[in-house]
Amino acid sequence: MPISARRMSLAAFSALAATTLFTAPAGATVFNQGIFVRDAHLAHDGAVTLSGSYHCEQASPMGAMQIKATVAQEGGGRLSIGAEQIVCDGQERRWVANAPGAFANVHPGHAVVTAELQEVRLSGLMPRSVTTVAQDSKDVEVREH
Q1: Taking the model in full, what pTM does it have?
Q2: Could you write out the three-class secondary structure of 56-80?
Q3: CB-neighbour burial class of residue 65 (10 A; exposed 0-12, middle 13-18, buried 19+)
Q4: Minimal CA–CA distance to 96: which of 64, 55, 54?
Q5: Judging by DSSP bridges, how do beta strands 34-42 and 126-144 pair with one another?
Q6: CA separation (Å) from 122 to 37, 80, 116?
Q7: Residue 103, helix vs strand vs coil
Q8: CA 43 centroid distance within chain
Q9: How far is Cα 69 from Cα 80, in angstroms, rounded to an integer?
Q10: In angstroms, rounded to a whole number, what is the distance separating the alpha carbons of residues 21 and 103?
Q11: Is the dihedral of CA 22, 26, 28, 33 positive or negative?
Q12: Which backbone phi and psi does 134 adopt, to 5 degrees?
């Protein structure tokens, strides 16, 4: 049974509309979530502090939100640390992540800091999945203070 040109064009248009509707841009986040990297500091004892800002909506009832921050340096290493407890109320808030000097392999100079706002979906008390809902990377100068 041949398909009419009208029916074929309607099917093609529907497929295109669905693709446009359900395909998010590369930088899109869920529920207007966002995170931004500000800076990195190194204490005299080697402790590392990364900071920035974020905004998020309430996590799903089956999950929680967290921030993971990573600093990477050429010739140094890579250090990932979590930020303190975050509040998801849609307001712009500051985040801070600290790592003691004993665990950090960071030195003054150029680094790339990446911050991820993540939704952790739980199954009982155990994490079932972790989804990054917003991410930012920035070239920074790690400064001693």
Answers
A1: 0.73
A2: CCCCCCCEEEEEEEEEECCCCCEEE
A3: buried
A4: 54
A5: parallel
A6: 27, 22, 18
A7: coil
A8: 25
A9: 6
A10: 45
A11: positive
A12: -155, 150
pLDDT in tens, 72-110: 998 768 899 998 889 998 999 999 999 998 777 889 999
Q: How many CB atoms lie within 10 A of CB 140?
A: 18
The answer on pLDDT for 24 being more than 50 is: no
Tokens of 32: 């207007």
CB neighbour class for 70 (10 Å; exposed up to 12, middle 13-18, buried from 19): middle
Report the candidate in 110, 109, 128 with the shortest Cα–Cα distance to residue 118. 128
Tell the residue number behind the tokens 């986040």, with chain if given.
29
Going through 16-108 in order, the beta strands assigned E by DSSP cover: 34-42, 48-55, 63-72, 78-82, 93-99
Our CA angle for 135, 138, 140, nearest 5°, is: 145
Beta pairing class for 48-55 and 93-99:
antiparallel
- Copy the structure tokens of residue 81: 């640390």
Q: Which of 40, 29, 129 shows the shortest CA–CA distance to 79?
A: 40
For residue 119, the one-letter residue type is: E
Q: Rg of the Cα trace of the chain? A: 21
